[in-house]
User: What shape does this take?
Amino acid sequence: MLNSYIPLAIIIILSIGFAILIVIIGGLFGPRRKTPRKVLPYESGMTPIGPGTRRIPVRFYLVAVLFILFDIEIIFIIPWAVILREFVGENYGVFALIEMVTFIIILLIGLFYAWKKGALEWE
Assistant: This one.
């Protein structure tokens, strides 16, 4: 039963191992000379304004988390929409529809909460 997952497990293990190997090789053989020009933050070839390590408002992180949340929502909705006809054929259509509507309502409540708190306002 789990034999069909063996190729996937091999690919995951090889990709993780390859990524670790690349980081290690880059650390061992990469150049380490730090010059004042290399330490400067990159700003499209312009002279940097202010320090490179300034505080970023929490609002940026909140918008990023909301973006990831709604991307995950789409990841769940697309497969559900693809197999909806199978649910209808097996008389589970109403149940599947109610579950997806419940899922969307829960996420919309979160969206409206963030909207009311001003998380989507950009200053």
